[in-house]
Design a protein that fits this description.
The protein has 402 residues and is mostly helical. The protein is built from 18 helices and no strands. Helix 1 crosses helix 18. The protein is globular, with a radius of gyration of 21 Å. The N terminus is likely disordered.
Amino acid sequence: MLAIAEITTEPQHPTDGDDAVAPNPDAPTRAAPRTLRSDVVRYGTPVAIFLSGRLLTLAAAHAARLINPAKGLLSIHGSWDAAWYRNLAENGYPTTHPPGVGDPAQSTLAFFPAFPILIRAVHAVTGISYSSAGILVNVVLGAVASILIWLVAERVANAKTATRAVALFSFFPGSFILGMGYTEGLFLVCAGACLLALMHERWLIAGLAAGVGSATRATGWVLCLVCAWAAFVVWRERRTWKPLLAPALSPLGLIAFSVYLWAHTGDPLMWRASQKIGWNQGFVTSDTIRGLWDWLPRPLFSFNILVSALTMAMVAVFVLSVLRWRWRLGSLLGIYTFGVLTTAMAVSQLNSTPRYVMPAFGAYIWVANKLSETTYSMLLAVWAGGMAILMLMSGGTQWYTP
């Protein structure tokens, strides 16, 4: 049973052991007294780890310029979907997508509004370019997300696991995107804030965070599901209606976006139609499976599919490991993590699998809690190398399209 209602005076974190997990990870706790110095260490550590990952991707971006000297650093970090978000922040949504199918029919209508709104706000306040604003927002929010992930990990496990988990998150291959003008930083802040608020029964904060998340990217449905589950369990145990505030607020971002599209284009699901027409993005079909099958005999034929296949293999190993050694980090984090992973695996667009998987930070916490020091260090080094390679390939070549 989800123990949200049970209050403990201290987070009773074990101090030793790779499998050390706090009891009742979903239960709210009273924070222990802290000093300014302890807060600096507490919050500065995950930020420092996160920024070290961004320095690695910055170095890889410099190397990408050796491959493609025509590209500057701003161009590299503002390319691919970041260019679409910049265009959306600058020009807004059109009333219809272009005619045709594929590249000619691609449109900003396929992208959610929360991140472009932030880009426009930062541009208006600071006067920096839209591209610079998008990169700045993603990096700053990614740093905030690292703190939230650390707090969630400390809540369900312990401080050592939390620090390890932030390192895995910061150097996961798909995390190279956190230095570009993408939505991942904003969504991760929404997810971390939502989960922490639910664990502490702050229903209004949880609902608002999930609501912004649902206006940030399609994966926001997972936050709605987590809010609904938490509210249901507390309602079942206490018969109080206050928790229902979280699931009631959680889909409002998506609803507002849909209402706007309905008024603006005549189709409340125009974003979905635009993704399908312009990028052929949908759920896994027989064509997706056939593409993977045809790729197997010649794995170097497509770097995009190679990267996605390796990511899928990692997810499969993780799921099998959880089935073998059990998930003991609480149902809220479990629903979120497996919801994100399920969504990532169900998308037909194979080239973006690493960044779709990346927000499932419960996986980093579980892995960080299980691995020995040697295995953890080896995995971290391999992931850091993979992250640098993806930044190099996406920034300097057309071989990898995130």
